[in-house]
TrEMBL record:
PROSITE patterns: HTH_CROC1, PAC, PAS. Residues 12-70 form the PAS domain. Residues 86-138 form the PAC domain. This is histidine kinase. Residues 279-308 form the HTH cro/C1-type domain. GO terms for molecular function: DNA binding; protein histidine kinase activity. It comes from Hartmannibacter diazotrophicus.
């Protein structure tokens, strides 16, 4: 309590020094009556200059500003009403060679005679924020490019399913990011598909596992364009769901890569749905636990258990069976249907 009482008697100057020491902030004052410029300790620290070597001056300040970001603040003060004279972002080149992004804000303060007496400015280092912003923009461009190459629409949502960004959805539906918020994407669907799509969407988001959703998007004809979306969760550090990432493609345009890998003459996932006994037998032959299979295939353990039930859960997407079939095939096993019987085994060497 004593420390708090002492701090309560701090002067404004002490409080400013404390804030500048704990944050990346600097301040300056231009005294118009005495034509003097004052820099705070925090500003010196921010711009990388030594107060023992450099006196506050516009020339010293301008010498470290990036050539493309110079601003003439020594000209006539056309705003003599106490309003902001500038609020901008700019770059500086510190003497140690580092480039920093700063946010500068300055206002004119009037004296008792209603004339400008001071210009007070604050400068904030926003380099980290700028790097993050630029990285997000670059990632967005990458997703736009991927969307164009794949001929698909890409969604990124938060854990509740609210769309954070979308790429390729606008050309497909005419909807912007603002249009799809608060389930607004349902308006792009043909009316008959909206209720079912909403049910599938809300139900699937409750399960921490990949899912598919299909519906028809409105088009110039009455039937609409059929699309299929495949979503997978992105986990946070604690193992919970941080985001969902999904890709929508027009039905019929997505030749599944898994089917492309099935050698000619073999019965792949497109020809029969794996039998639960085949999955259990394949695990046993490879010496895998459910956890092992989950690690190799990327399918959650709970979904694998549902797939292995003698009375299989028909809500499990065919995509999971395709992935499972390909996983076993890559490890040397073959799945076949012979005279109505599901068979699994290693192929015999010729």
């Amino acid at each position: 309590m004593k420390a708090l009482k002492n701090r309560s008697r701090w002067s404004s100057y002490q409080m400013l020094r404390f804030i500048e020491e704990k944050t990346k902030i600097g301040t300056w004052i231009w005294d118009l009556t005495a034509t003097e410029l004052h820099w705070s300790t925090g500003l010196y620290r921010l711009i990388g200059l030594d107060p023992q070597e450099t006196k506050p001056s516009f020339s010293a300040y301008e010498s470290i500003i990036h050539p493309d970001d110079h601003l003439d603040i020594t000209g006539p003060l056309v705003r003599a009403d106490g309003s902001t004279i500038f609020d901008r972002q700019f770059r500086i080149m510190r003497r140690d060679g580092s480039l920093r992004w700063l946010q500068g804000h300055a206002e004119i303060h009037l004296g008792a005679d209603e004339m400008p007496h001071q210009v007070i400015g604050v400068v904030i280092d926003i380099t980290d924020r700028k790097i993050l912003s630029d990285s997000l923009k670059l990632a967005g461009r990458h997703l736009d490019l991927a969307s164009d190459i794949l001929g698909a629409a890409v969604w990124i949502t938060d854990r509740q399913g609210s769309i954070v960004s979308q790429h390729g959805w606008l050309p497909l539906t005419g909807q912007s990011v603002a249009d799809v918020q608060q389930m607004g994407w349902l308006n792009a669907l043909v009316p008959e598909d909206r209720v079912q799509a909403m049910k599938v969407w809300m139900t699937s988001l409750r399960r921490p596992e990949p899912f598919e959703i299909g519906f028809r998007v409105r088009s110039s004809d009455d039937e609409g364009v059929a699309v299929t979306g495949r979503f997978t969760p992105l986990e946070d550090r604690k193992g919970g769901i941080a985001e969902w990432i999904g890709v929508f493609r027009r039905q019929g345009s997505d030749a599944r890569a898994l089917q492309d890998h099935v050698p000619a003459g073999e019965e792949g996932s497109g020809e029969h749905r794996l039998h639960p006994a085949q999955i259990r037998a394949a695990r046993a032959m490879l010496g895998w636990s459910v956890s092992d299979l989950a690690d190799v295939s990327g399918i959650s353990g709970s979904t694998i258990r549902r797939m292995e039930m003698d009375d299989p859960d028909r809500s499990v997407s065919q995509t999971y069976f395709d992935i499972m079939h390909e996983t076993f095939r890559r490890h040397g096993l073959r799945m076949e249907l012979r005279d109505g019987m599901a068979v699994v085994g290693f192929p015999m060497s010729p």
